[in-house]
Amino acid sequence: MAAVAEALEPWSTVAPRRKRAAGRRPRRDGGQARGPQAEPEADSEAVLRRLREAEEDLRISDFCHSALETITQCLRKQLEQLQALAEALGRLQLDLSPGGSGEPLPMSAFPVKCVCYGLGNFASCVTARTQLAFMLLFLETCQIPRSHCWVYDPLFSQTEVSVLTSLGVTVLSENEEGKRSVHGQPTAFYMPHCGTALYNNLLWSNWSADALSRVVIIGNSFRGLQERLLTRILKENYPYVAKILQGLEELPLPQTPRYTDAFNDTSVHWFPLLRLEALPRELWASREEPDYQNCEDLEMIRKPTHCAGQV
After folding, report:
1. When comparing pLDDT for 12 and 204, which is higher?
2. Neighbouring C-beta atoms of residue 289, cutoff 10 Å
3. Fewer CB within 10 Å, N side or C side of the chain?
4. Where are the domains of the chain?
């Protein structure tokens, strides 16, 4: 347990200094927000200044402190799980080595990556800017280097790409549609108010107990999706969300009037390995890629497709 405690120490939450719709629909107006939170897009320096202000407002809020506690609690549990697995594998390696002279696996801390989808136009939308500011505080609190963070939204303007690059995160050049595998690396997916198809695609891309045990999703409440969608629609259109409901642990972020637009219906989801391994074996056998041909309200911008023979 001492090794586990040492590995977990960097995850201590930093103490603070002194219902929007659940699915983010693709905007048809070029990404410009409307209503009282809409602002004209400014230049990079002005956007950075507004972002810093949003970050400092969040930093001193009770919401931020409580929300970060919730997220780090899930990450801590995941790290404990991976640490225990590594120790078990180390002991197995010793047992299988001739004469028991094998070297145990290293007990180094597990570096965590962050992938963010669906922020929207934070240069002109207060809600999106608040969500980005919270992500930066999350990276800081969990000591995830910004160089280990990848961000994408098909609606980003050139100004927003420039701002994100200056912040030290990597802006993806391709619309992955959420289909990113963790490749054995613990990864936190920050997906505030994304469409259900993005979560479904992400689950499909990591459809194994080993991969999902390394995934944390900060986004729309899966339990809320289950309550709002007809069972038939959930199973037909978003089968991987439907199938994983019994294999996850969900902790809702705290609700506060000030940040309702930004974090309404938002939860942290992680996937305990024991729960995943208890699911029926046949559940993992079906891995058909989602196509959404019969989905009327997709809430996701698809990547461009090219005709056969087109360069």
Report:
1. 204
2. 8
3. C
4. 44-95+108-281
Distance CA 24, CA 111 (A): 30
Residue of 145, 284, 113 lying closest to 215 (CA atoms) = 113
How many whole angstroms separate alpha carbon 268 and alpha carbon 69? 11
Using pLDDT thresholds of 50, 70 and 90, give the confidence band for residue 122. very high
pLDDT winner (highest mean) among 8-17, 120-129, 294-303: 120-129
What CA dihedral angle connects 203, 207, 210 and 214, to 10 degrees? -10
Going by C-beta distance under 8 Å and a sequence separation of 6 or more, which residues neighbour residue 265?
A: 19, 20, 22, 193, 220, 221, 224
Cα 242 to Cα 97: distance, rounded to the nearest angstrom = 43
Q: Which residue type is seen at 256?
A: T
Is the Cβ–Cβ distance between 187 and 206 less than 8 Å?
no
The rounded distance, in Å, linking the Cα atoms of 38 and 25 is 17
Structure tokens, 227: 């309550």
Examine the pLDDT at 14 and tell me if it is beyond 70. Answer: no
> Which of these, 94, 76, 91, lies nearest to 8 by C-alpha position?
76
Instruction: Please name the fold of domain 44-95+108-281.
Output: Rossmann fold (3.40.50)
Measured CA to CA, the distance from residue 134 to residue 68 in angstroms comes to: 9
Least confident of 38-47, 67-76, 113-122, 168-177: 38-47
248 and 271 in contact (C-beta within 8 Å)? yes
State the Cα–Cα distance between residues 130 and 253, nearest whole angstrom.
Answer: 15
Question: If DSSP states are collapsed to H, E and C, what string results for 35-59?
Answer: CCCECCCCCHHHHHHHHHHHHHHHH
Residues 195, 220: contact at Cβ < 8 Å?
Answer: no
Give the residue carrying structure tokens 């801390």: 109
pLDDT digits (tens, 9 = 90+) for 40-93: 667 999 999 999 999 999 999 999 999 999 999 999 999 899 888 878 766 655
- Which of 213-222, 250-259, 299-308 has the weakest average pLDDT? 299-308
